[in-house]
Amino acid sequence: MVMVHRPPRKADNFHYHGPSLFCERVPLADVARRFDTPTYVYSHAELHKNATTYIDSAKRLGQTCLVCYAVKANGNPELLRILSGLGLGADIVSGGELFLALKSGFDPRQIVFSGVGKTRQEIVEAISAGILSLHVESEGELQLISQTAKSLEKVAPVAVRVNPDIDVDTHAHIATGGKWHKFGVTLDSALSMMRSAHGDPWLDPIGLSAHLGSQIMALEPYERVAERLGAMADELAGAGLRLDYIDLGGGLAIDYGQGPGPAVDSWLESVYGVAHYRGYRLLVEPGRSIVGSAGIILTRVLYMKQQSNQTIVVTDAGMNDFIRPALYGARHPILPVHRNEQIQDADHSLYDIVGPVCETADVLSRNASLSPLQPGDLLAILKVGAYGYAMSSNYNGRPRPAEVLVDGDSMRCIRQRERYDDLLGDSA
User: Fold this and answer.
1) Are residues 258 and 317 in the same domain?
2) Could you please report the per-residue DSSP string of 343-380?
3) Sequence-separated (6 or more) residues with CB below 8 Å from residue 371
4) Which residues contact 10 (CB under 8 A, 6 or more apart)?
């Protein structure tokens, strides 16, 4: 498969002005000169646009729709402060993410805590913080929350995560709603757990949740799971347990080159009625569709070589910096930071863009169609704001890259590049 990398639309916050690729009004070559490579670069305008799209769509539906940003997608504290300042809630999956969310200004009453493996300490921290709800994923977890709440003498609000057994068309590693997945519990178990929680003086059962996966291109699976949760909530109401909300998770797709996913307003409108007309609040947990298109990673070409009729381009960014291509086979658009405007698509060459890590899987793109490259050239890998830096590591003894925020014509570092000393940790 040949991936043709075309310039973004002029309206995008990453765009060409003449031969140079810009983030908003800052040339990306200037970012590389100041902060070196590899470096993550985020557009404040793009992040703000994506977040306000959700906020405005939710407002049009009324005050019964809460948008909780999935912190796991990108937990940079500066980006979190921007999102909390806009009024978003937060979806967290660990004590560390709770810490980040609270430090970044999120209202604890708008924080939900998901995840299959919460520790007692994390449960203590969540109950003590007064978050909206703990999303429970097993009977054992429900028992531990009850015991912990009793020891704290504080009632714990809970919701049960349902595994709806609905398959979606996405990569196997990011599908979460099938019966063979580790997430949630069966419908029958969920109803039983909610009834048990209703009879427990230390638990306050307030919701049902589900999450189908990530990078989902269709609305129909969401509509099915909304109806399923709505029917379950009504059954519980008939038995005297009236819930506050149903939570449909996140996972809305963005355009990595395969075409756009559903529009945000279409998604929310397609499922809002199921909750609203039954008298429940609707919660959603978007991550990728808020931060994904707001980030790129800058990388520099180190070497080029011919191998088996293919030109291999070795860059200074590898799978430790950006693992999605190696982990998911993800394909991200790649653009030159400086383009030759005289060269047409027909004059492009095919390249395997690879990183320096000692793994065969360390390939950023295969058969990328780009104008002729040479060592020293800068490349921008687009739409890496979600699950980019968040999944980076020190594998092969490689310090993590810097993160830079661009706002109009200004740029500033929002996470310093790690140094070799950082690899020593507390043993330094």
Assistant:
1) no
2) --GGG-EEEEEE-SSSSTT-EEEEEEEES---TT-EEE
3) 336, 339, 340, 343, 347, 348, 349
4) none
Answer with the one of 262, 286, 310 that is the final residue of a domain: 286
Range of the domain at 168: 114-286
Tell whether 376 is covered by a domain. Answer: yes
132 and 205 belong to one structural domain? yes
Q: Could you give the strand order of the β-sheet that contains 14-17, starting from the edge strand earlier in sequence?
A: 14-17, 20-23, 26-27
Residue 335 maps to a domain: yes
Looking up residue 261, the CATH number of its domain turns out to be: 3.20.20.10
DSSP string, 256-287: SSS-----HHHHHHHHHHHHHTTT-EEEE---
Give me the pLDDT at residue 340, please.
86
φ/ψ (deg, to 5) at 32: -65, -40
Do residues 344 and 260 share a domain? no
Q: What is the CA radius of gyration of the chain?
A: 23
The single residue of 23, 65, 68, 358 carrying the catalytic annotation is 358
Supply the pLDDT for residue 308. Answer: 85
Q: For residues 147 and 243, state if they share a domain.
A: yes
Q: Is the dihedral of CA 155, 156, 157, 163 positive or negative?
A: negative
Task: Give dist(CA 38, CA 427) in Å, integer.
Answer: 26
**CATH number of the domain residue 353 falls in:** 2.40.37.10
* Cβ atoms 402, 34 nearer than 8 A: no
Q: What are phi and psi of 219, to 5 degrees?
A: -85, -30
Query: 0.90 cut: is pTM over it?
Result: yes
* 230 or 346: which leads in pLDDT: 230
Q: How confident is the model at residue 181 (pLDDT cuts 50, 70, 90)?
A: low
> What would the pLDDT profile of 326-370 be if each residue is shown by its tens digit?
998 889 999 999 998 887 776 789 999 999 999 999 999 999 999
Specify whether 358 is catalytic. yes
Phi, psi for residue 338 in degrees, rounded to 5: -125, 120
